[in-house]
Design brief:
The chain is built from five helices and eleven strands, in the order αββααβαβββββαβββ. With 274 residues, it is of the alpha/beta class. The strands form three sheets. Strands 1, 2, 3, 4, 5, 6 and 11 form a seven-stranded mixed β-sheet that branches. It has a two-stranded antiparallel ribbon with strand order 7-8. Strands 9-10 form a two-stranded antiparallel sheet. Helix 1 packs across helix 5 and helix 3 (82-99) packs parallel to helix 5 (212-242). The longest helix has 31 residues, at 2-32.
Length: 274
């Protein structure tokens, strides 16, 4: 029993030491990454889909007709300007990467970029897709008539953005596809209206519905978020590459540029597709 306790403590100390090495490498990357080159290759088409479409299933519509039905029934995507959305997203991505200290280039400046010293990264925005959807929320209410609980449904509109980035070191053929998904939705504030004279309780709903301004704001904020997670991706790749032999990388680190702090184990990151 005593011997097992000593082995456990030894294992714990080993893990702690490994984590300390990882944090040290993360700090080193934060300190020394400034000036590293990044080439951003933008995308010029925004894919859009309405997932809320309803139609008569007894009719054999063609794919083109179904697309037309989905387009007409959409509340948001039919009004989204591809060029405006993509420009807001890309500019925000580039601005935030620059704020992190990277030397950022866009497609067309490749001669200057490739003359920069390594390490440098190529980031291709392979695809952006905007989906319109909705879901049903439920409020649990209490009936003063029979004393039973019941549920009142309400519709929640959502706009979802999916992204696929191809990321690679310059002058190498090794690419990883990074996937990220995020959404915005209607906001609700629910309250109760008590009518003591009538002995009734009513539900008051304050609905803050999505508008087009919210969709374009999402493009800007999503560009910033992608830049933030790209920094984490580059930093953790540096940690993995520079760990001493015998230490397995166990933690993923996030760097908060505004507070200049490192956070261990934050789950928010890209999904690696391949």
């Amino acid at each position: 029993m005593f011997r097992f306790f000593i082995i456990s403590i030894g294992c714990f100390l080993f893990l702690l030491a490994g984590c300390s090495v990882e944090r040290g490498l993360a700090k080193k990357y934060v300190k020394n990454h400034a000036g590293s080159g990044i080439m951003v290759i933008p995308v010029f088409e925004l894919y859009k889909d309405n997932l809320t479409v309803s139609y008569d299933t007894a009719v054999g519509y063609s794919p083109e007709q179904l697309d037309s039905i989905a387009w007409v029934q959409s509340c948001y995507i039919q009004d989204v300007s591809d060029s405006v959305f993509l420009t807001l997203f890309t500019n925000s991505l580039v601005d935030e990467l620059s704020a992190f200290g990277f030397d950022v280039y866009v497609d067309g400046s490749s001669d200057i970029f490739f003359s920069l010293p390594d390490p440098k990264w190529m980031v291709q925005i392979a695809q952006l897709q905007l989906n319109e959807d909705h879901r049903t929320g439920y409020d649990q209410l209490y009936s003063v008539d029979d004393g039973e609980f019941y549920y009142k449904p309400f519709r929640i509109n959502e706009v979802n953005l999916c992204s696929w980035f191809e990321v690679s070191r310059a002058n190498t053929g090794n690419k990883q596809v990074l996937y990220l998904e995020g959404y915005i939705q209607d906001a609700f504030k629910m309250g109760f209206d008590f009518d003591l004279m009538e002995g009734k309780v009513g539900l008051l709903g304050d609905r803050d519905s999505l508008e087009m301004d919210n969709v374009y704001k999402m493009a800007e904020q999503s560009g910033e978020k992608h830049a933030e997670l790209l920094f984490d991706y580059f930093m953790n790749d540096y940690i993995r590459e520079n760990l001493p032999s015998g230490i397995v990388n166990r933690e993923y680190f996030h760097y908060n540029r505004k507070t200049k702090s490192l956070i261990k184990g934050l789950p928010e990151r890209f999904d690696v597709v391949n």
